[in-house]
Every structure is written in structure tokens, then in C-alpha cells.
Amino acid sequence: MGAAKLVYENLAKLFPKSKLTARSIARLGNVYAQTAFFREAAEKLEEYAAKYAGEKDAYDALSDAVGFRKGIGDDAQAIADTQTFVRKFGAQKPAEAATAFWSLGAIYEKQNDLDAQIRHLRGYLATYRASDATREVMAFAKLGQALWQKACPVKTVDGSCVKAERELSLRIAHHRTDPTHCGDATKVKLTVVPRDEGNVRAAMAAFAAAIAASKGTDRAALYYTALAKLGLAERDYERYLALPLPTGLDFTPARAARSHKRFDSWLVGKRDVALGLKHAYEAIVKLGDGATAIASASRLGQVYESFSGQLFRAEIPANLRTGPYAEEASQTYCDAVTEAAEPLETEAKTAYQLCLQTSTRLGWFSDASRVCERELGQLDPNQWPTASELRPSPDQISRIEAVENPPDDLR
Questions:
Q1: Which of 69, 112, 290, 359 minimizes the number of CB atoms within 10 Å of its CB?
Q2: What is the pTM of this model?
């Protein structure tokens, strides 16, 4: 390889105008690639594609250069090379140009640059939407996801734009110790953080477009169609979380009838919304896509856990916490709301167990399945104890010194 490199370099120096010099630049790039000097390989292939764009293999050279730039993490040059590729070869190779432009999305996703992702996906849809039916669905679904994420001004909790408060549940009985709230601090308390409405509307439109564009049955189209349906359901889920508990409730005998009427009406209404969400998430589970099925199954548990947590963590009205009968009035209030909360928590446990069963059945384990495992440990630590061993992320890797080619009969 060293001798070949020397020959190609001297050829370029001694005969700069020879047609063979053009071939030597491309060959030199291949020599660098075979000896794992990928940056140098990319530079030579870029030089060849720039000087000899009319050659038949200039397309392949620049395409390989993009691959090498991505491999070494030189994202800026990979983007520049791709843009050059689209500009030079887009007219005669439109399908390849569409693929090249689409590949830029992986770079922006790796950089977690939501603005760049949104611009890129909109640009792809504006120029190459008709080039590939599956990619059209993917582009709309990814665009919806990016806009939905951008709409939240805070770091999300399990994908929801909320703030969560609770303590770790241990294998002991808990009792209410906070005189201002019902229940104990191990029950989840969620506060919804409003999303930017403009981005939410744009995200919902993108999700709807992904579903409308879905006509194929391949796995990628199925996943992104299910992802879009999940995105539409997520908006309703956050609206559901934001439904406030009625204020001014008083379940002491003198005022119980009116308060029960208001409370029961609210309870029925919120249960109806929960049932609608349950149907939406179950429909996604039935699509059979592993990732979105587990995410939807996890949400089913969270629908009922958040409902029960809202009741368990209800704040006792200030007027009930004062006066000579404050303790009795507070306890009566908490008895009423926790009586409604207990069956909801049971439904949440059942949903999380079904989530883990679905995960096992589909052979799919993810952050969503870990949510189901985590929440069962939080709701019932005696029955579902949370694993306590320390498992640090691996941060040490060994360098591969040599790789033996597979036998010919296995290639």
C-alpha cells in the first residue's frame, strides 16, 4: 500500500494534466481508506469529485467521501459534501439525490438540533416528497415528533411536558404526615407545563399527514404510522392530566350532598376521558409494532396512575384545616377522595402488568417497558421490588487491532 501511495502521489506531481492523474487521485483515496486513514481518504475522494465531476465514478467517490466523513464524526463536512452531491448530481440522479438529502437527517438527530431537524424535514417534503412513499410517512411523523418536543419549554418526564413530585416508595407502610394534603408523598403528583400552541398545532398537522400518507404495509411505514397515532393521543393525554380537581369540596354532613354531586360529576367526566385514551392506546397496541405498542401500554398504566395520584395527593381545602373540627373535616375529605383513588390505582397496576406481558410477548424492551417495571415497584414495592444493584453505563472500549475476513462460503 505504501508503494502504491508513492506511485499515485508522484504521478500527480509529474503529470498533472494526464488523464491517468485523475485516476490516481481516486485510487489514492481508496488506498487511504484500506489503511484506515479515513479523513485523508475523504479528502482525496472530494478532490477527485471536484476536479473530475464529469467522470462516471465521481458520483461514487463523493458518496464514499460522505460515508467516511460521517464515520469519523466530521458532521459539518459531511453536510457540505452531501449538499455538493445534491447540487452536482441531483438533476441526472434524482432518486440518489433524494436519498442523500434524506441521510442528513441522521446527523441533525445525532446533534439533537431540533430546529435543524425541522428545517431539514420540511425541505425534504417540499422537494422530494413524491420520491418515496415510505419516506413521506417517516418525514411527516419525524417532523411531528420534533415539533412536539420543541413545543415543551422544560425537560419532559417520560415524554410528557410535566413536572413530577414524589418520594421513592419503600417496602413499608406509609401514612399521611402532611396536614395539608391527603395521602403520602410516594404517590405521584403531576403538574402540566403548557406547550407552545403554534408548535403543537403544527405537530398535530404533521402527525395527521403521516397517517393520511400511509398506504404501505412495510415495517418502517407501520412504525411511523403508529408513532403518528401515538403523537395525536399524547396531546389528549396531556389535556387529561391538566383537568383540575374541583375546589371548595366539603364532605362533612352539612355540605356533603352538594360536594358529592360536584365531585361525582367530575369523576365521571374524567373517567370518560380516561376511557377514550384507553381505546386510543389499545388501538395502537393492536397494530403490533413493538416500540409503539409498549409505549402505548405504558401510557395506559400512567393514565390511571396519574388519576389516582391526583386524588391521593389532593390538597385539603384551607377552610377545612382550621377550626375546632379541622381534623375530622380533613379526614372526611381525604376519605372521600382516596376511596375513589384506590380502584384507579388497582387499574394502573393491572395495566403495568399487561405492559410487561406485552413486552415479553413481542420481545421488545425499551425505556417504556422500564417505566412499567419502575412504576409497579413504586405502587407495590412488596410485590414488585425494584432492582437495587448498581449498573453503571459502560464507558471503556478496546480498540480492534485486526479483523479477520470471514471464510468465502460465509460471505
A1: 112
A2: 0.79
